[in-house]
Specification:
It is built from 2 helices and 12 strands; from the N terminus they run H-E-E-E-E-H-E-E-E-E-E-E-E-E. The chain has a 7-stranded antiparallel sheet. The chain has a 3-stranded antiparallel sheet with strand order 10-11-12, with no helix packed on it. It has a two-stranded antiparallel ribbon with strand order 1-5. It has one domain. 10% of the residues lie in helices and 47% in strands. By secondary structure, it is mostly beta strands. The protein is globular and about 40 Å long. The longest helix is centred in the N-terminal third of the chain and has 7 residues, at 3-9. It has helices at 3-9, 47-53, and strands at 12-14, 18-21, 26-31, 39-45, 58-60, 62-68, 74-79, 86-91, 97-103, 109-115, 118-123, 128-132.
Length: 144
């Protein structure tokens, strides 16, 4: 079991702007409102090292919006422990983590729109994050 899967069992995510995959791969991300996705994927990092230096640097998350994907799982967006935090995630049918993205300054994500395999999560402060639900690092088409 990877570090992110262990955290997810308690509905916790690290307090860092990052994209985490259940297989243990993690990437720094940054909000980038002027891009088609609303965020930029930066360098990869070792989550185990981050947690080793400060294991308490985690936030409890709770969902505010969901889209049921049937046998393909669930999209979930919501809030962290502090008012400014937000997260977006894709889960399996048994609510195990496939991937999750956390932002410390986005505010909670309270709305999800799905078009094909592209989901757009909107926060309470108006940030929009669009992802290919099968691989959030993949580019998504810009507005037509």
């Amino acid at each position: 079991m990877t570090a992110i899967e262990r955290l997810w069992e308690d509905f916790e995510l690290p307090i860092t702007d990052a994209l985490h995959y259940a297989d243990g791969h993690s990437y720094d991300v940054a909000l980038a409102p002027d891009t088609p996705t609303g965020f930029a994927v930066l360098a990869s990092f070792d989550l185990d090292e981050v947690l080793e230096s400060d294991p308490s640097w985690v936030s409890s998350v709770d969902g505010l919006a969901a889209v049921d994907l049937g046998e393909n799982g669930l999209l979930w967006g919501g809030e962290g422990s502090y008012g400014s935090e937000g997260f977006v995630a894709r889960l399996t049918t048994d609510r195990s983590l496939m991937w999750a993205m956390f932002f410390a300054e986005s505010n909670p994500f309270s709305r999800i729109r799905l078009s094909g395999t592209v989901a757009t999560f909107t926060s309470t402060s108006g940030f929009e994050v669009s992802v290919d639900i099968d691989d959030p690092r993949s580019p998504v088409p810009g507005p037509a």
